[in-house]
Amino acid sequence: MAKALKINAGDNVAVVLADVKAGEEVGVVTDTDVVQIRALQDIAFGHKIALRSRETAPPSTG
After folding, report:
1. Do the beta carbons of residue 38 and residue 26 sit within 8 Å?
2. What is the pLDDT of residues 10-59, one digit of tens each?
3. Coil, strand or helix: which one is 14?
4. Which pTM does this prediction carry?
5. How far is Cα 34 from Cα 58, in angstroms, rounded to an integer?
6. Smallest Cα–Cα separation from 6: which of 25, 27, 30, 39?
7. Is residue 36 classed as helix, strand or coil in its secondary structure?
8. 26 contacts 49 by C-beta, under 8 angstroms
9. Angle 19-26-44 (CA atoms, 0-180°, nearest 5)?
């Protein structure tokens, strides 16, 4: 059963539809599929979960 929903196809996050525990597999409904990811920490209902690792941006110079 899916526990998260990706709202916008361009987003890197989904909203969890139930509390998620660290280590739990989370089914995420996207615009075309349901993907499985593993939560790295507890996430409360209504909060967001990242769908992939954040890329490190170079430091700002201004």
Report:
1. yes
2. 999 999 999 999 999 999 999 999 999 999 999 999 999 999 877 655 56
3. strand
4. 0.79
5. 32
6. 30
7. strand
8. yes
9. 20
**Tokens 């990811």 found at:** 37
Token duo for residue 55: 């890329």
Residue indicated by tokens 């939560």: 39
**Tokens 């593993």 -> residue:** 38
Alpha helices in 1-62 (DSSP H): none
What is the Cα–Cα distance from 20 to 18, expressed in whole angstroms?
A: 6
HSE of 10, CA atoms in CB hemisphere, 13 A: 0
Q: Provide CB contacts within 8 A for 52, sequence distance 6+.
A: 12
Q: Which amino acid is at 57?
A: A
Chain centre to alpha carbon of residue 25: 11
